[in-house]
Design a protein that fits this description.
368 residues; alpha/beta; Aspartate Aminotransferase, domain 2; Aspartate Aminotransferase, domain 1; 2 domains; 13 strands; 36% helix; 14% strand; globular
């Protein structure tokens, strides 16, 4: 049992120093303007600069942003969306919110991401979108996925909730597809307490996106002069969350960089350990390591051993096809079977210092 070191959590929320954050929050809280306003629009502009992508819409959650993407992509009741069961439940809940059905594609057993071959096998005349999750911050094989989608003329929605700061083919995640969602939920690389950002490839989607996130109304138009012509939602971000985001942007590059440096350390330090298989990915992919995934022959034994030594670990996500809500979409998924039975996530975030990561690697190396 580990007794000489502090507990190493799997997730830990980063917030800026109080002297930087609290005065900004106090100003906005007592400004008389706490709903969607200029801080939201400034945050959209600055987040756009950070991720290197021009067309950004803010939402109150990543799930709301995904639902917005599905609406903008034209997904309606009776349509089918191809997705993955290896994700948090909100990814696929958003599909049900849109009224569509889910068709599961299988994943690469070496990293948990969808692969283009299994996506292509699931496309039918009813398929109206493909949702691709970059699991754990490892970019999916977007070049081959885009080839499949473009041949079928189907839009791709990237769920980059785990992948802020990741890159693919020397471009930021989100540069290739019609829509990409970044989550700002509590335990992600960067948080605004809750929130989501939607990257739209086509600038023409922005006006409609702004109205659908607020009851179908253009907030900048005189209220008594607008005509609501389509259903909208209460999905907008507020000035309080946006202000947290504005301060976070002063720190997020260093936070993401520490995740990446820790992940690359584990890529080397954990290589070749008997009973451990490391994830693999395309040479074009540059992960941002939201957590670090290992695959173990005796996963439950490893999990107990790490916990006994004060290293928090978890499977994090239950494969979604096991939920009764998604039972109608169940099918044979051998890649998911392999990955889900072996995968385990260990800490590699900004709070893991050099001593911590060496301890984690040494603990695993000793065997379990």
């Amino acid at each position: 049992m580990k007794t000489d070191r502090s507990f190493i959590p799997l997730f830990k929320v980063f917030l800026p120093p109080a002297e930087k954050l609290i005065p900004r929050l106090q100003n906005v809280l007592y400004s008389g303007q706490i709903s969607e306003g200029e801080p939201v629009y400034e945050f959209e502009r600055r987040f756009s600069i950070f991720v290197g992508l021009p067309h950004i819409l803010s939402f109150y959650s990543g799930t709301a942003a995904l639902h917005g993407a599905l609406i903008l992509a034209g997904v309606k009741r009776g349509d089918v969306v191809i997705s993955t069961p290896m994700t948090a439940e909100p990814t696929n809940m958003a599909i049900l919110h849109s009224g569509a059905e889910i068709a599961w594609a299988d994943v690469d057993p070496g990293n948990g991401n969808l692969n283009s071959t299994t996506i292509a096998e699931k496309i039918t005349s009813r398929t109206k979108a493909i949702i691709v999750v970059h699991y754990g911050g490892i970019p999916a094989p977007m070049e081959s996925i885009r080839d499949v989608a473009e041949r079928a003329k189907i839009p791709v929605i990237e769920d980059a909730a785990h992948a802020l700061g990741a890159r693919y083919d020397n471009r930021p995640i989100g540069a290739l597809s019609e829509y990409t969602m970044f989550s700002l939920q509590a335990i992600k690389h960067m948080t605004t307490v809750d929130g989501g950002m939607l990257v739209c490839k086509n600038q023409a989607d922005l006006p409609r996106g702004r109205t659908l996130r607020w009851f179908g109304i253009d907030r900048k138009a005189p209220r008594i002069e607008v005509d609501v012509s389509s259903i909208g939602y209460k999905y907008h971000m507020n000035n309080v969350n946006a202000t947290i985001g504005l301060v976070q942007l002063d720190y997020v590059a260093a936070i993401v960089d520490r995740h990446i440096r820790n992940g690359r350390y584990f890529d080397k330090a954990l290589s070749g350990i008997p009973g451990i298989e490391l994830c693999h990915w395309e040479e074009k992919a540059e992960p941002s390591y939201w957590f670090y995934t290992v695959m173990a022959e005796k996963r439950d034994n490893l999990s107990r051993y790490l916990s006994e030594n004060g290293i928090e670990n978890s499977q994090v996500h239950k494969r979604n096809d096991l939920h009764s809500l998604f039972a109608s979409s169940r099918c044979d998924l051998p890649g998911v079977d392999y990955f889900y039975s072996r995968m385990l996530h260990i800490p590699c975030g900004w709070w893991v210092n050099d001593e911590d990561r060496a301890f984690i690697a040494d603990t695993i190396r000793r065997g379990w």
